Here is the input.
Amino acid sequence: MGKSYSPGLTVTDNIVLKKERILPLEGEVTVKKGDKVKANDVIAVTRLPGKVIPLNMANKLGSTPQLVGQFIKVKQGDEIKKDQILAETKGFFGFFKQTVKSPTDGEVENISKHTGQMLLREPRIPIEVKAFIDGIVVEVIPKQGCVIENVSAYIQGIFGIGDETIGDIEVTINDCNDPLTLEMIKPEHKDKILVSGTVVSYEAIQKAISTGVKAIITGGIDDHDLKKLLGYDIGVAITGHENIGITIVVTEGFGPIKMARKTFSLLKQFQGHQASVHGRTQIRAGVIRPEIIIPIEFDENALTDVQPSLPFLEIGATIRVIREPNFGFIGKVTGLPEQLKVVESETKVRILEAELENGQKVTIPRANVEIIEDH
Here is the structure.
C-alpha cells in the first residue's frame, strides 16, 4: 500500500531548524559564515527610498516651465533641509520676489526643464533585519541576508496575528484546560510570552497589551473577539503585520478549544526559556504557519542538512480533527481502510479510524484531519 500524505503541524522538543533572513531590497550583510548570532543581533541593513513629493515650480514661481531653470538654486542629487530655499525669482528692483522652500529634509530627485516640476524625496528609511533566532550563520547571501541554523524545540500554530517578537515563556496556568484570565496577568509579565490553555478572552488580551506582554500562545480564540481586537474581519488575508501591540499564536483553532496536551507540556517544559514567536499565517498557496521557536544548546557537529520529509498517515500517527464534528480533537490513527466509504454528502471518500483523547472511537474522512508531527 502506498503512503497517504496529509498536511501537518510540527510539535517537537528537538529539531534542526534553518531560517532564511532576507532584506526587502539589496543592502549590506553584517555577518559572515560561521558566526554565532543571538536573536536580537542585526544581520543585515539597508535603506528604503523615502516618499516622493512633487512640486510644481512653474506654478509656485509664476513662471513658464522653460524659464524655471534660471531660478532654481539646487540641482538633481543635492541633499536638502526643511525650509531651505529651492528657487527664488529676482522680482522687480529687489521687490515682489517669489520664493519656494523645501517642505522636508531629503534630496532632490529630479528637475524637469519641460514641465517645470521638481521631485523631492524624503530621507531614506533605515531597515534592519535581525537574526530572530539564536544560531549559526551557515550561508551568506551577498547583499541580501543569510541563513541561520540551530537546534530548537518547535511548535507550529494553526493561526496567528502579529509580527516577530522575542521573550521568555511564562506559564501561569496549571493545565491545558485552563484559560489565561485577567487576574493572572501581572506587571511582572511585561516582555513575557504568556500561555492560555483554552480560549483567551478579549479583555485578557487587552490587559496583556496594556501590561506590555510580548505574545500570547493560546489553544483557541473567539472569532468575534478577534474582529473586535483588529477592527475588521480578517477573512483569508495574509496575517502577521498587524500593529496591535501583541502577537497571538493559536495552536488549535477558533472557539473554546483546549490546547493539545503535548503542546502544553512542551511549553511547560521550557518555562522561563527565551522563545522567538511570530503570528504570520497564509492559508492559500505557499502556506505559512505561525511559529514558536525555543533554541536549545547543541553541538555544532549535530547540525545536518537533512530535509524534512512530508508527513503521512500511518497507524499510530497523531492527528487533529479540523472539521465538525469533533473539530479540534486530538487522536491516534488506529486503522486505514482501503475501501472508499459514502459520507453524508453522498460522495465516496477515503476514511481513517481513530481513537480520540477522550477515548471515543471515530471514523473520519482523511481530508478532515491534519497530522501533528512527532519527532
In short: Residues 240 and 280 are 4 Å apart (CA to CA). DSSP finds four helices and 29 strands in the chain.
